[in-house]
């Protein structure tokens, strides 16, 4: 793999490297049971408590895929299910204090990586890269805009 590689392959490699570094940052704080796929659920809950269907929609996944992840995170003590005040039959998923702490740690790690990358290539190039990647994403996925 090199600079002439396909954009998607380069994007996946960068995402894997960032994820590895976030995992290392979590482990340094003693959080060793959060898997990379859990981080996606954390990001989906950044907007506040949500039903599993809303989390799945935010992730571009099915509720059948997200449900077991939420079950696992509830068992691990990172998420809880609360009654939905708008529908007594539904449940909202939200962070527990431990889950909020893990999500905050992961976010701080990701922000530190962003700063490191900006230092590596310069702020202007980092901003151009972000804008270019977003343009490519929205060009392929009209729902991302």
Automatic annotation (TrEMBL):
InterPro entries: HTH_MarR-typ, MarR/SlyA-like, WH-like_DNA-bd_sf, WH_DNA-bd_sf. SMART domains: HTH_MARR. Residues 4-142 form the HTH marR-type domain. It comes from the Bacteria. PANTHER family: MARR FAMILY REGULATORY PROTEIN, TRANSCRIPTIONAL REGULATOR, MARR FAMILY. This is MarR family transcriptional regulator.
